[in-house]
Amino acid sequence: MVLAVRGAIQVDRDDPAEILAGTRELIREVVDRNGIGPDDLISIVFTMTPDLTSCFPAVAARDLGLVDVPLLCATEVPVPGALPRVVRLLAHVESDRPRSAVRHVYLRGATRLRPDLAA
């Protein structure tokens, strides 16, 4: 079965080191909380708010050894008043777990996006 796992993290500024560190933290939490192994990952789509432009978040996934996983980066829709400086991910995963067992991950200021899932 294929499951989708969402996650988001807010970073402090548009700086490559900050974005990559935050993205690595987000990936690690998604993988750890959901018991995902490298071979379970089908693909990951990353998005960033339009105020983040200094690097690709997919670089962080490659840094973590995810070299055989297809990755895609895109920009979020620039909605007025949206939470700034957010990196999001949508991971597609092969799993025997039920969809109800998926633990979506919202870190730092991104907990405001989905307080119901951030706990």
TrEMBL record:
It comes from the Bacteria. This is chorismate mutase. Keywords: Amino-acid biosynthesis, Aromatic amino acid biosynthesis, Isomerase. It is an enzyme of class 5 (isomerase). Prephenate binds at residues 6, 88, 106. CDD domains: AroH. It catalyses: chorismate = prephenate. InterPro entries: Chorismate_mutase_AroH, RutC-like_sf. Its EC number is 5.4.99.5. PROSITE patterns: CHORISMATE_MUT_1. One of its GO terms (biological process) is aromatic amino acid family biosynthetic process. GO terms for molecular function: chorismate mutase activity.
